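Q: Can someone sanity-check these two? First one:
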Amino acid sequence: MESIIDVFSYFIDIRFQFFVLIGATAGLFVGAIPGLSVTMATALLVSITYSWNALDAMATIMGVFVVGVFSGAISAILINIPGAPSSVVTTLDGYPLAKKGRSYEALKYATVYSFIGTTFGILVLWVIAKPISNVALKFTPMDSFLICLFGLATVGTLTSKSFSKGLMSAMIGLILSMIGIDSVMGTPRLTFGIQDLQAGIGTVPALVGLFGFAEVLTVISEGNLTAQVAKVEKNLINTRNMLKYFPQSIYYAAIGTFVGALPGAGGPVAAFLAYGQATKITKNPTAPFGEGAVEGIVASETANNACIGGALIPMLTLAIPGDAVTAIILSVFYVHGLQPGPMFIQTNPEMFHVILAGGLIGAIWVLILGLGLGPKISKIINVPKRLLLPVVTVLCVIGSFSGNNRMFDVGLMFAFGILGFFMRRLEYPVAPLTLALVLGGTMDANFRRAISLASSESNKLLALFGRPITIVLLVLTIFVLVSNLPFLRNKEKKVFD
């Protein structure tokens, strides 16, 4: 009961509401413009909110996260270009519906069911985060190392067509995370005599480069995006018809929350799975799927927004981000001296309540901004890239410099931007590198701690891997790695073909 009062007390906190609104408004515009992304916006916010107090920073970032994921549907419906990867599935039925002159209806369905999906995911986070933390409290250092390794292996599996490319990306991130002063020996490691690297790779310039400047380079290389924006003509929609898909939406939200909790899966995977289920369980769709079926929009938008709560579950309880955005949010915690993990909810209940309140209030702003400004945002979607990209570049430079006031960090940002650009061109996923960069230090410390503790035992192997939780994590990690070996994947394809 006390937890409920604490969470809902933020609903009447004007200052908190203001910062969520700032983030929500930024998320609405950034998410709706093709070529930008909620991931990039969150990365830039890390640098902007660096000097803020943790409460204001998290309120703003939750607003961006929640509304930014939704607003990708606006451009998906109006111009057939998803504003975010998680909105790709929305284009299948959203744009055909808009071409029929029903764009307002498509936007309204996307808005209402994005609200439902987000609310469901945040409530699930509220209910199950503490039980998961209680289990995680029993983790040994080896368990913590293995859960991070499992997360990296899973990200490599789900974020790339090539498993080897996913693992290669993670390996690059792990190597980069080792740069700096060795925490045990106290000697420089992989610094190559560069004094500025002794403090390690700064998280802020790395993330801003990978998701901000790399996005600029990608858009420039692809040329201007030109598209015909569908007209938005307001028409009345029966509320009963709008809500008749609510029972199915709970099923899609459950899919989205579960997929979101899997490291690296994220909104695109959830949306595709939910869409596939919609085609199976819907007997009489309003139109054939792919030709303007409202049911397709409901499935996609409910699932990808439910991922928000799901992705926060492993981040808060195990310190393992569920997707690229939560990897960036994890860095926000570290920047503000917070330590996510099994003890987080017990030691920082206020910040847990801030995240819950920010998510729920953000969902409300989805409704308000989506229904109020969503239909009117079409004029902004086609903003000339020649005006937009210089602004984003300046923000990247300012953001990377402001953390430590070092030009070296600006150079790092450019370097990571170029790295991120070429990784995308060569189809190497950036998410595993990001996750490894954030988790590398934790993995290093836990592995060395586990070895140190086992060195005094008579049976070192049993001391390292003899506990039931450790065995389960080890088996899961080995299974993910082995099942993705090329010859086994080829056999699997032959069986299913």
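And here is the second, same format, sequence then tokens:
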Amino acid sequence: MQPALTIIVPVYNEEESLPVFFAAMDEFLAITPLPTEVLYVNDGSSDNSPQLLRDKCADDPCSRFLSLSENRGLSTAIKAGIDHSHTTLTGYIDADLQTRPEDFTAFLPYFAEYDMVNGIRAKRRDSIVKKISSKVGNGWRRFMINDGIRDTCCPLKILKTEYAIKIPFFHGMHRFIPALVQLEGGRVKQIQVSHYSRMAGVAKYHLFNRLVGPFFDTLAFRWMRNRHISYTVAEKSTTDKTL
């Protein structure tokens, strides 16, 4: 199969950011060396985001969207995007433009050797509260599962779709995508990407769900990893017999 890329963009009440995001994504689509499409996943938005997506996808052959019947959260939006990705590579970026699509171009050369590339946000442009809560959450996760991932929640990722469809999904899964790829035997490359202040709209997460959710999700992941089934066939008969 010819290499191609689907970029998943979860959208929840981002009507202020979307017009600028569309322009930034169009700039990336003009320079990407791979056939690329953008899949917007409307996660039950209650603002004008759905209409903006309809208008964009009606006029752009490289863009399509799907709308969930209700708001189900980031992990579900990413899962829905993976379920509807039909290319060899699947990427993910947030619609708030705190990371930029053009940084995806630096990811693509690594897929001859790696199964996933994960961004590391350099010089984060976040509030003090968000920086502290992220540092605490990342520290707790690394202490508990020791996956070697510096910025697991960076909203700039590309992975081979064959791994994306294999990894188990649960609420909070988006915090563990690199570790889940490693659990399936995949190799993860980490590279620095630019980070910017939010241009418009408001963040959808606060101190409570940045700390309490990751605390319990990490325990759940550790439980699942300890019981993960993995095997390699050493030998089998040369003919398969059917009854």
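A (reply): Looked at the second one. The chain is about 35% helix and 15% strand. Strands lie at 5-11, 36-42, 63-67, 89-93, 116-121, 156-160, 188-193.
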